[in-house]
Design brief:
The structure holds two protein chains of two kinds.
Chain A (H helix, E strand, L loop, with lengths): L5 H10 L7 E2 L9 H4 L5 E4 L2 E3 L5 E4 L9 H13 L6 E6 L21 H28 L7 E3 L2 E4 L4 E4 H8 L28 H5 L15 E7 L6 E6 L1 H4 L4 E7 L2 E6 L2 H9 L2 E5 L8 H12 L5 E5 L9 E9 L11 E7 L2 E6 L4 H12 L6 E5 L15 H13 L5 E4 L2 H5 L8 E9 L5 E11 L8 H4 E2 L2 E2 H4 L11 E9 L13 H18 L4 H8 L4 H16 L10 E10 L2 E12 L2 E12 L6 H19 L6 E2 L2 E2 L18 E5 L18 H13 L14 E2 L5
Helix pairs in contact in A: 3-4, 4-5, 10-11, 15-19
Chain B lengths: L1 E6 L2 E6 L6 H8 L18 E4 L2 E4 L13 E3 L11 H8 L9 H14 L5 H7 L9 H17 L1
Parallel strand pairs in B: 1-5
Antiparallel strand pairs in B: 1-2, 3-4, 3-5
Helix pairs in contact in B: 2-5
Classes of the chains: A alpha+beta, B alpha+beta.
């Protein structure tokens, strides 16, 4: 019933000696255990794949499963080329730092930016096809026939001429002796059997029965637990602390100071937490203690009113050409990721080095940080990946904060025990690493025909990448692309453009959150487009089509616009009392558009219908894509109905789910998803691109219903209740 | 202090301080980690179990408030994805994304369907106040409808 423990993995290590795969077994199906399966006759042509003599097809996952469905999607890709029987497929968590598991583009083990399926697409197909070719060759040798007359299906090699077959299970020992072919032929799309189908999630059963072991659930027989006190004010430093009361409380083993706070190690979480609350801590709050949201917005507004560095210029602003100038701004607050599983990591510091068990998106990055900060060779760092209880970017931590803290506590404690550090929800909501607050201000000049001729736009936003290991990757000509993606290189063709970025600095650490910069640039850009369409008295679909420049992406955007317009029945007037808006936005290599329809009765707005159109290239699992769009709508809707982190006296005001708003079932509409095939032959992102365009589509529907402009999120409506029936 | 708790059909003796929330007794003392910690302030429902059939958020309720006479059911105490109509519907529709909140969701759905075999949309909205950050709500609604039908047909 329970998943194997780490003790079990030690046994497996012995079993797998000499094998490229060092994996922590994850049994997703009853009656199929790794212990029963492993013998030296296993066939492992690649670190990612092992076929056992019992037929189990084990795929070690190079990317973290945090809900986005990658375990299933990645397995589908490999298993399709392998012609595997899907019921034999077992997904295994990664517990190796073998470069074979690197992100194929980034060169480090990591998950992010909606790239898991797209970056592995070609590679996993080649792995599957290579293994298939070797199994065919093994069968050919066993039968003494030529390989080219043989076919494969459902984990069998078939000899149609002689009406006989051998299972992959029977061929592992022979295949293991073969050299992989230098070239393999991949399937043509018409030959796909799994890719493009609604294969149920591999983790559906474990997650419906409470048997999936998240980082939070991990345990070892001698494991202790830790709770940590962090600085309440951003940038504060610890002056002194008194642990005399905490140290004598039941179950307490150690109180340790680490750079980011003071941690209590105890037998159980509740003991650790109770003793942590009894610590007496004296902080030097520092300069940020005087800062509030109001002072930050004041600073941002001042910057937005001043010239600054131009990151994009086209043409030359021509004030004389403008008959009318439209001005406006958008404000978007700090947002905490608040994944349902609070951050945690288990660390064991001992003679053999450091062992970590955690749900992290950044195994490769974390290993480097741990090695540097704890001054041990990276070879002595081992990271076991577990299920991630959500992340939305938070578990891709450039400074590896929660994992590093666990390691520092384990080392500082001097205890040989594994120690699980458990953050409280408050540590997460109040701890920073937020989606940066952003202010957009624009001025658009319209000519006599109400076409935009000038577009001045200023973004005020803190840099995410500056000072992190990713600075070189994301800084472009002095601008952090993580602040402006979605605005820069816009596909909308305004002849004279001047885009400015003011990069702010403050003590609140900021981080990518699902949708990244597009989560604030799309509400701005699409909000502007909806306003311009109104000013021009044009249909918003037609207006956008007329304004899109000739690019490959614009062709896809137009395809999505067509599908969305048809899918929503836009040509027909909405029913009495229903008001609608739309938006479309390309991000993460994909294009998503929404039509939002609101029903107005008295002074109340509720959802009538939400329609989405999605081009995410070649679709691996349509059900999974639909689920990610449902998910994106709920995620974006939270941003509309109250979600924000405010700052007062240098601290986060919101602390937990009672005041940090997250959409609940009663708020969230059913979404009708239309998948758009614009002919792309490979997959593109799907976890994030559904988030950015939802808010501007909603804003336009709200405008249609109420006449009110939504230019700040979360939105506040004058005299109207939105989703008043919600909790 | 030591006390007896009746969990998933068995009586367990546990040694925990009176103020320890039931959640942490289940997780750290009984190893029943299917019940999750999400907020610690009864706001998210990840810690929901059934106590005599009623949904209870256990992250605040001290263990001293429970007696052996009360029957506590956690996700581990349900019949499983082959037999339990709710767990089966959850599995067939691939409801879970990250899955962390789903034990609590499933327990809340059980409590709802025990009272209302044919819940209206409003009933579902009122009963299912658990937070899912992945936003699985649309499929939660689908799965509840299917489970309700299967339970009525049985």
């Amino acid at each position: 019933m329970r998943e194997p423990t780490a003790d079990f993995s030690v046994d497996r290590r012995r079993f797998l000696k000499g094998c490229a795969v060092l994996s922590f077994a994850l049994v997703l199906r009853p009656g199929r255990t790794a212990a029963a399966a492993v013998t030296n006759a296993a066939f492992s042509p690649n670190a990612v794949l092992r076929i056992d003599p019992d037929g189990a097809i084990r795929i070690v996952m190079p990317h973290a499963e945090m809900g986005q469905g990658v375990y299933t999607g990645l397995a589908q890709i490999l298993a399709d080329e392998l012609d595997a029987d899907w019921s034999h497929v077992v997904a295994e968590h990664l517990d190796s730092l073998d470069p074979a598991f690197n992100h194929r583009e980034w060169g480090v083990i990591s998950t992010g930016a909606s790239t898991s399926v797209s970056n592995q697409w070609q590679h996993l197909r080649e792995v599957g096809a290579t293994a298939r070719a070797m199994l065919v060759e093994a069968a050919a040798q066993q039968w003494g026939v030529a390989a080219d007359g043989l076919t494969t299906a459902n984990s069998f090699v078939i000899d149609p001429a002689r009406d006989r077959r051998l299972s992959y299970a029977e061929l592992t020992a022979t295949a293991a002796q073969l050299q992989p072919p230098t070239e393999v032929r991949l399937k043509t799309p018409d030959q796909f059997r799994l890719i493009g189908t609604d294969v149920p999630r591999l983790d559906a059963r474990a997650k419906a029965t409470g048997t999936a072991t998240f980082g939070m659930d991990f345990t070892l027989p001698d494991m202790l637990q830790a709770s940590i006190a962090h600085a309440p004010v951003f940038g504060a430093t610890l002056k002194s602390f008194d642990a005399s009361q905490a140290e004598v409380m039941p179950g307490v083993r150690k109180v340790v100071r680490i750079p980011s706070g003071v941690a209590v190690v105890a037998d159980t979480f509740w003991q650790a937490k109770t003793a942590k609350d009894a610590l007496e801590l004296t902080w030097d709050d520092g300069a940020f203690a005087d800062v509030s949201s109001a002072t930050l917005w004041e600073e941002y507004a001042t910057l937005a009113g001043t010239d600054g560095p131009v990151f994009e210029r086209r043409g030359a602003l021509a004030p004389a050409a403008a008959e009318v100038n439209l001005e406006g701004e958008f404000r978007l607050p700090f947002l905490a990721h608040a994944p349902m599983e609070p951050l945690n990591a288990t660390a064991r510091w001992g003679g053999a080095g450091l062992e970590i068990w955690s749900g992290t998106q950044f195994q490769g990055v974390d290993a480097g940080t741990l090695s540097a900060k704890l001054e041990i060779p990276v070879e002595q760092v081992r990271i076991h990946t577990l299920w991630l209880g959500g992340s939305f970017g938070r578990r891709a931590a450039p400074f590896s904060d929660f994992v590093l803290e666990a390691a520092q506590i384990a080392k500082a404690s001097g205890l040989p025990n594994p120690i699980k550090l458990v953050w409280q929800r408050e540590d997460d909501v109040q701890g920073g690493f937020y989606r940066p607050m952003a202010l957009h201000r624009y001025r658009i000049g319209l000519d006599a025909a109400r076409r935009p001729v000038n577009w001045e736009h200023r973004v005020v936003c803190a840099s995410i990448s500056k000072g992190t290991p990713f600075e070189a990757a994301f800084m472009h000509e002095g601008f952090d692309t993580l602040s402006i993606e979605g605005l820069r290189h816009t596909n909308y063709d305004v002849p004279n453009v001047e885009f400015v970025l003011h990069t702010t600095e403050h003590a609140v650490p900021v981080l990518w959150l699902r949708g990244e910069a597009d989560s604030h640039t799309a509400p701005a850009v699409e909000g502007i487009m909806n306003r311009l369409a109104r000013e021009a008295e044009q249909d918003p679909f037609a207006f956008r089509r007329s304004l899109l420049r000739e690019t490959d992406m614009s062709k896809r955007i137009k395809g999505v616009l067509d599908a969305l317009e048809a899918g929503a029945g836009w040509a027909n007037s909405p029913p009495e009392g229903v008001y609608r808006g739309m938006a479309v936005h390309p991000s993460f290599g994909s294009v998503v558009g929404y039509v939002v329809e609101l029903r107005k009765s008295d002074k109340r707005l509720d959802f009538h219908r939400v329609v989405a159109a999605v081009d995410c290239g070649r679709v691996v699992n349509p059900a999974s894509v639909r689920a990610q769009i449902y998910s994106s709508v709920a995620f974006a809707l939270s941003m509309a109905i109250g979600q924000k982190i405010e700052i007062a006296n240098g601290r986060a005001v919101q602390s937990n789910f009672h005041d940090y708003t997250v959409a609940r079932l009663s708020h969230v509409p059913d979404v009708e998803v239309h998948l758009v095939d614009n002919g792309l032959d490979h997959p593109t992102g799907v976890g994030e691109p559904g988030v950015p365009p939802f808010l501007p589509a909603l804003a336009e529907a709200v405008h249609a219903a109420t006449g009110q402009d939504v230019n700040a999120w979360p939105m506040t409506l004058d005299g109207y209740a939105f989703l008043a029936g919600g909790s | 202090m030591a006390r007896n708790l009746h969990v998933n059909g068995r009586v367990h003796e546990v040694e925990a301080s009176d103020d320890t929330p039931l959640l942490w007794v289940l997780r750290d003392h009984l190893g029943l980690t299917g019940t999750k910690y999400g907020c610690g302030v009864m706001a998210c429902g990840a810690c929901t179990v059934l106590v005599d059939g009623e949904p209870v958020r256990t992250c605040v309720m001290p263990v001293s408030g429970f007696t052996e006479a009360q029957s506590i059911t956690t996700i581990e105490g349900l019949p499983g994805a082959d037999e339990d109509p709710v767990q089966k519907a959850w599995t067939e529709h691939s409801v879970a994304q990250c899955g962390y909140c789903q034990s609590g969701m499933i327990m809340a759905a059980h409590a709802l369907l025990a009272k209302q075999p044919e819940p209206s949309d409003a009933d579902v909205e009122q009963a299912m106040t658990n937070i899912c950050r992945c936003g699985t709500y649309q499929l939660v609604r689908v799965a509840i409808r299917q489970a309700a039908k299967e339970m009525r047909d049985a």
